[in-house]
């Protein structure tokens, strides 16, 4: 199976656009930290599919939940690893993908990047 893998680091600008932000909601609580996001494309599918994995941690040791969104396409699965299905109409344009990571107190970190299916 032919795969094309990329490794994203939160401090690195990936494919021209990346954004990392965090929000704290409880005094004394630290927001999660997104260390990196990995992307792996499966080029043998009829529709381009990418596996995304978000590597995040919480300085306070709290459990984390993940929310994925994109400007087009859909996600399969939940949690830190999901499959992203790029619709046929949009495989040649840039798609904006965001992952938000929450702790139980709703403190969050988010990371946004742009991606398109490799040819």
Describe this structure in words.
By secondary structure, the chain is an all-beta fold. The chain has one domain (3-115): Immunoglobulins (Immunoglobulin-like, Sandwich), CATH 2.60.40.10. The protein is 0% helix and 52% strand. The strands form 2 sheets. A 5-stranded antiparallel β-sheet has the order 1-3-4-7-6, with no helix packed on it. It has a 4-stranded antiparallel β-sheet with strand order 2-9-8-5, with no helix packed on it. A hairpin with a 6-residue loop joins strand 3 (33-42) and strand 4 (49-57). The protein is elongated, with a radius of gyration of 15 Å.
How many DSSP helices? 0
The name CATH uses for the topology is: Immunoglobulin-like
Major β-sheet, in short?
Answer: 5 strands, antiparallel
Low-confidence stretches: 1-17
Number of domains: 1
Q: Could you state the order of secondary-structure elements as H and E?
A: EEEEEEEEE
SS content category: mainly beta
Protein topology:
Elements lengths: L2 E7 L8 E6 L9 E10 L6 E9 L7 E6 L3 E3 L4 E5 L9 E8 L5 E8 L4
Antiparallel strand pairs: 1-3, 2-9, 3-4, 4-7, 5-8, 6-7, 8-9
In short:
The protein is mainly β. The protein has no helices and 9 strands. It has one domain (3-115): Immunoglobulins (Immunoglobulin-like, Sandwich).
Top keywords for this entry?
0% helix; Immunoglobulin-like; disordered N terminus; 4-stranded antiparallel sheet; mainly beta; 5-stranded antiparallel sheet; single chain; 119 residues
């Amino acid at each position: 199976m032919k795969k094309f893998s990329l490794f994203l680091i939160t401090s690195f600008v990936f494919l021209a656009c990346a954004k990392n932000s965090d929000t704290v909601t409880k005094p004394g609580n630290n927001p999660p930290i997104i260390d990196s996001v990995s992307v792996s494309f499966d080029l043998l599918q009829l529709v381009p599919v990418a596996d995304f994995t978000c590597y995040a941690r919480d300085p306070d040791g709290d459990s984390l939940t993940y929310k994925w969104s994109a400007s087009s396409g859909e996600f399969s699965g939940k949690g830190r690893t999901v499959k992203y299905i790029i619709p046929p109409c949009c495989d040649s344009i840039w798609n904006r993908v965001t992952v938000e990571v929450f702790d139980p107190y709703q403190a969050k970190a988010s990371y946004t990047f742009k991606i398109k299916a490799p040819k």
